Amino acid sequence: MVEQTSITWDTFSGEIFKRNWVFKLMIGLCPTLAVSTSILNALSMGAATTFVLVCSSTIISSLRNFIPNEVRITAYIMVISTFVIIVDYVMKAISVELYDAFGPFIALIVVNCIILGHAEAYASKNSVLSTIVNALGSGVGFTVALLLLSAPREILGNGTLLGYQVVWDNFQTWLIMITPVGGFLMLAFWISIFNWFDKRKTGNVTETKGGCHG
Amino acid sequence: MGNSLISIFLNSMLTNNVLVVYFLGLCSFFGVTNKLSVAWSMSVAVILVTFIASQLAYVIDIVTTLIQVEHLRNLAKIAVIASTVQIIDIVMKSSMSGMHKAFGIYLALITTNCLVFGVAVIQTSKGYSYTECISYSLGAGFGYTLMMMIMAGLRVRLELSNPPELMKGAVLSLIIACYLSFLMQGFNGLGN
Q1: Which residue of B has its CA nearest to A178?
Q2: Per-residue pLDDT tens for B170-179?
Q3: pTM over 0.90
Q4: Are B27 and A29 within 8 A, CB to CB?
Q5: Residue A209 with chain B: CB contacts under 8 Å
Q6: Taking the CB of residue B63, how many other CB atoms lie within 10 A of it?
Q7: What pLDDT shows up at residue A154?
Q8: 3-class secondary structure for chain B?
Q9: Measured between alpha carbons, how far is A45 from A23 in angstroms, rounded to an integer?
Q10: How far is A60 from chain B (nearest CA, A)?
Q11: Which of A32, A192, A196 has the most B C-beta neighbours within 10 Å, making it the best mutation to test the interface with B?
């Protein structure tokens, strides 16, 4: 039905840096900025999103010939929402503290543009196997983005890394880094770093633009 | 600490602005603020849909609690919101084609806007009553509009400026967002 691309190493690894959803496409910013205040939060959110992404993409990809085109978005959301409910309950069972820290953002995985975008752009056009590989890559890429944002924010804003103190004793913490302001600042910093790498490689800057308008 | 309607409104509009403090609907914040007119259409559509979705979410909360299927609450909410937006789109197309043309594609895009769903989830977690829900959703809509218009206005001016090459486009918008978020922290303590 649609042309099948073969699975290569790039299917997986390309999603991590070359086509990173957060830094290159600016998709899925809301959870990225909201939960990247500490590394533990970032890791849990990354794992939860990867789980939902892989499971829902697999199902959507295997049903791609049965879902009518007119109701596809609603159908995708239904599939994604089912897995988000699973994550919601699992998270609550593992750690209530973590669950409270996320607030509404566990439920909001449903409207994470990365998952819906992946379903629309990749899962609905490719074979199940290559979708799983690609979804895994995207999930890892998202987690990497969260870690890159959260590590400096936690160290500078709180003086800790994974809960252990890593700075000297009378270090003045930058309180601003764990407020929403720091999230925007750190993301701007990383995107300009990525632009700089691009410039060194290709000689010119490809302007990053907002990807999803939802 | 009066939990009055005005304080809820101010809280969701300024202190805990949905866009720059709660980080909801950021995609459209960076995606459609290139032009003032487009940002305005999107904002009006968001106010309308958030208001309607918030009422629907309130009803869904009551119904799901009544028949004891709380675990399906979010599933029901997103399904109802998505189909309501579709219905509004169809009704508007047939009876108010002028208005439909003004909204353009943005009404359909709102289906996946985290702001609409986020407001529906947050009002439940805060346990708001019906009138408080109205106040909260309107505040969220107006807060969104405020930020969108400021952002779009600033970006129009920035088109003429000459920033460092590495910071063109997205990075510059993020830094503006950073300042706006800082601005909103100045309202801390207003409302609750």
Answers
A1: B21
A2: 788 888 888 8
A3: no
A4: yes
A5: 169-170
A6: 12
A7: 87
A8: CCCCHHHHHHHHHHHCCCCCCCCCCHHHHHHCCCCHHHHHHHHHHHHHHHHHHHHHHHHHHHHHHHCCCHHHHHHHHHHHHHHHHHHHHHHHHHHCHHHHHHHCCHHHHHHHCHHHHHHHHHHHHCCCCHHHHHHHHHHHHHHHHHHHHHHHHHHHHHCCCCCCHHHCCHHHHHHHHHHHHHHHHCCCCCCC
A9: 17
A10: 17
A11: A192
Q: Do A103 and B125 touch (CB under 8 A)?
A: yes
The Cα–Cα gap between A61 and A48 comes to: 20
How far CA B93 is from CA of B50, B54, B105, in Å, comes to 20, 23, 12
Cross-chain residue pair B174–A191, CB shorter than 8 Å: yes
Exposed, middle or buried: residue A128 (CB in 10 Å: 0-12, 13-18, 19+)?
Answer: middle
- Compute the count of residue pairs across chains A and B with CB atoms less than 8 Å apart: 143
Integer Rg of chain B from CA: 18
Rounded Cα distance, A47 and B177, in Å: 28
Q: Is B27's CB within 8 Å of A111's CB? A: no
B113:A111 CB<8 A: yes
Total number of residues shown for chain A: 214
- The alpha-carbon gap from A174 to the nearest alpha carbon of chain B, in Å, equals 14
Helix (H, G, I), strand (E, B) or coil at A28: coil
Nearest residue in chain A measured CA to CA from B110: A214
- What is the SS3 string spanning B5-50? HHHHHHHHHHHCCCCCCCCCCHHHHHHCCCCHHHHHHHHHHHHHHH
Strands A160-161 and A164-165: antiparallel
CB-CB under 8 Å, A34 with B165: no
Phi/psi of residue B161, nearest 5 degrees: -85, 175
Q: Is the pLDDT of residue B104 over 70?
A: no
Ranges of each domain in chain A: 12-202
Q: Are B32 and B42 in contact (CB under 8 A)?
A: yes
Mean pLDDT value of segment A177-192: 87
Q: Within an 8 Å CB–CB cutoff, is residue A183 touching chain B?
A: yes
| Nearest C-alpha neighbor of B51 from the set B120, B101, B97 | B120
